[in-house]
Structures
1.
Amino acid sequence: MNCKKARRTLSDYVDNVLPRSIAADFENHIKECPGCAAELDSVRSTIASLRSLAVRNTPVDLWPRVRRAVQSVQVGNIARPFYFRPAFIAPAITVTTAAVAMLLLPSPRQDSRKPDRLSSQEYHQYISYHAHSQQNPFVDSDVVLAAVELDKAKIRTDGNRR
Amino acid sequence: MSFRVVNSACALLIVLVYPPTLSATVSEVLHRAEQAEKLVSYRGVKYATVRCCEEDEIRFKMSVIHLKPDKTRVTYLAPSTLAGMVTVRNGSRRWQYYPQQERWVSCHRCLGPNDFRVSTQVLHNYKVRITGTERVAGREAYVVNAVPKLGSEPTHRIWIDKQRYIVVGTETKTGDGRVIRSSRFLSLALDPRDIKLSLFQVRGDTGSVSKNGGRIGFRVLKPSYLPAGYKLVGASTSSVNGHACSHLQFSNGVNTVSLFQRQAGKTSQEYVFLSKVTNVLSWVKNGMHFTLLGDLARSELQKIADSVR
């Protein structure tokens, strides 16, 4: 037996599972090879050390604890840093959105102008007043009023459609 | 023979040096037209057209009864959307009847100074010419053209009855020659004797639109900028949506711009829409809500709005 074959059979020899003839060949090699003999001693000492360690029993509540942990992961309620919690994130998003909106809006002077924004009822009154007040030979107020009334009807229809 | 030649030459010279100006005639015709409704009662059927933006032309038909000096009743006959609607003008008061709601709504109008003459302002701001005569509703009428001296506002043409100076037709064109509004009497009877006063009296509920009793509760602001030729021609107060509201009216004699002002409310049910009748600009400034509307370019309305303070 050479060193290469001896190293391959070392673990089986320690476990005492080798056939008698191969085990005899291994022992003859160990007597003649100090390197393989040292390797055998190292393995035997490691096994001896492991056997000296105390045996610990499994806790009785291990499985319930594992199950609770798995369930908490399923509902997304695992422990997170405070800045990832909804109670912190929702107000933060709101404040950020408001800040961005204020930055994007025009300056206060322009902000005060809201073109074309007016309630339809109020607009109807204004345009009626405007039409009734027109009185000169060049403008037929009856026609202006008719156009205003049609415009009102159209706005009402569009509003209902929306 | 030589006398005839000299005479003709003198006549030609006079015509060349002093051309027969129509302005005096135009002035007289316009002024008479402005006063005609105070002097003549009439009854007729009028057709009208309105074209908004690129939409199809809408045709109207209405019956008009006028009792001098200041009572008019108009009943709309077509289109079907407006059929049955009535407007009554009695002095400075205005009412509108809505058949679907079966109710009258009173409306206010701006009142200007008594000595204000529209015709004077028109002649100042427009090139006004009598271009000929045409027959309208079986009667001979002057055709009067009015082109703005400044700006790109619409041009106008009206037909004025040659004998009684009633306006029997109107036409408004854009700068590119598109007719946006027109009206013309199809039939017209002057001085009918069977017009009843009851036609101009409105009874019962007259709706929520009312005068505000003159108490406005805030300082009415005016624009420091107005387009050339425009001036303040009327003012009034009223109630709009429960708010006291002021109404200032500016005109160049033909075109009119209205500025409404009220206190801004905290709650608003505002939504965006575009008017096809006229341009509208609405804004809030220093706690006041303003609405400016009229047949002016948006840029001009914007300039007026910027100068309100």
Note: The helical segments of chain B are 2-17, 23-39, 118-125, 298-306.
2.
Amino acid sequence: MPDTLSYFLMAWTDPSLLGMVAAGTFAGIYIGAIPGLSVTMAVSILISLTFTWEVNQALALMVGVFCGGVYGGSRTAILLNIPGAPSAVATAFDGYPLAKRGEAGQAIGLSTIMSVIGGLIGVGVLASVAPVLSEFALQFAPRDYFLIAILGLLLVSSLAGASLAKGIFAAALGAVIGLVGMDPITAEPRFTLGSMQLLGGIHYVVVMIGLFGVAEALMQIHQLKVKPTRQQVDHILPRWALLLKFLPLSIRTSLIGVVVGALPGTGGDIAALFAYDHAKRSTRNPSRPFGEGAYEGLVAPETANNAAVGGAFVPMLTLGMPGDAVTAVMIGALIIHGLNPGPMLMVTSPHIFWFMVGALVLANLCLLVFGLMGIKLFAKVVELPKAMLIPLILVLSVIGSYALNSRLDDVYWMLGFGLAGYVLKIFGFQMGPIILGMILGPLMDKTYRQAMASVGNQLPALGWDLISHPLSLMLLIGLLLLILNRFRSWHKA
Amino acid sequence: MPQHTPGSPWMMGLLSLFSGGVLYAAYQISGPGIEGISSAGAFPLGLGAIMLVSSITLLFQHSRARLTAPKQHATTSTDEPPQPQSSSLISFIRLYFPLPLLVFIALVLGYVLVLGPLGFVWSTGLFLCVSLIYLRRGYPMSSLLIAVIATGLIYGVFKWIFQVYLP
């Protein structure tokens, strides 16, 4: 217990770590708020820039950026009706009408405090559930991991966009990209097209920077002429009575956020939409009609998307499976630093887990401070013209991809994936499933082959294993139900 | 019915071809026979098959969407002149690869190509300056100033704070 407390307080007591969390949160608010910059993009680039750092410093910065970024998206959603991040889409529904009524300051203040409440509840659940789940996960067999990975990919495929077929294609494509290189078991080359260079595989950070940095920058070129309208911002601190009134709703929607965020493959955007829907259905007498500036419509998504941050860390730290695209990228960061996210993390490196919990709490408190300060300056920064932003994103993407191995080839790959990502985006393919497929693909390949080897490469024996072990059976039923549900809704559509 | 984007059937057709290629490459890894059930190629083979099935499904869906689109047009506005084939490749290129985008892509490729010979500072400064002038439609002096300041800041931050290797 004393050890746990000292790990937890590490980010609070070490000035350099404290500074990293604070700087990350501050930067994250702006990154999340500026349309065209995304948290995933920032964390992807940060991995390649911080891999020579001490692990705690790198994680402190990334945790801060993650927390700040999820919150930051709401600012532009309220002020400009442009969600800075996907998790802030639902915030714009009532946030912008509030700003148009001259209550932008009140809306920002309320969203800040509610984000912090949601974030802290999310971290609380992470701290209490993850150690138990991690212990339980030690009993998982390779076949269980295989089933969970399929579940995660199916979930992200079906929830990430309107088309299930596109989601499945994107996830499978990501998995294929993840398998490029030498097979770690037999050393056979896979998808290398006879190239020696590809034997080492394609670095996932290069792909991430291409898909989230370059592709997004190219998309932004279509919006060069869009000019945001400025709102009047004052009276930022919300009334105490208002906070108390929405506390029960914020707790409910925080729990929705944690649960949705903890599902492998789903993130703050889906959590916020679920929470908004819950608020709409459960509030009998909203302060105003939903969509016309209801406070409830602002509170629900803002608590849920920040609570989803804590939730997303649960599968990442206990099972080694990403909760969303950002945690997929953070898994990459942990691996680069020689750590192995999964149930053994709590056994071999408990300090990392408790350090991250402490850093998340600290980041939420920083959010409270930075969220309620400097809003006038903020309003100017987010109006940075796209014509200036786009070339800067490109330069950062080039630096990020080159810094990994000091090879220009990585820059070419990054650009290639950026162009491919741009074309795929045009046709409605989401980038999230590709990244999750990249992370989960090699894991699925490994666990599938381990599961097969454990039953002497006999498919019927694997089938018997799946139905004779209670945990595997439960996962299999869950998977079948999900497939059934997805295909039924697909058929209806 | 999927949202109809010009050129969708072309794209889905290309993705189907690509998926076929992935399936073939996966087959070459695993080889024939039941022994391959847990071989290095087994899982890639499954992925290739999933990609092929989903891309053919998409091709079918988008082709159907294309066929139904003119019918809807005919029933709703008979007085208007017929629209050009919205799924043609030319409409797609016009819509999604406008001149500013093509010029910017060319600038980026040029930037990456001169990174090695010119070094980071000169190539980045040049790229930022030219792309800012082009995307902002003028303002050469302020673009030059922004490019110089941004290059200096980026160089300083990444060289001294992040301590990363720059090209």
Note: The CA atoms of residues 6 and 91 of chain B lie 6 Å apart.
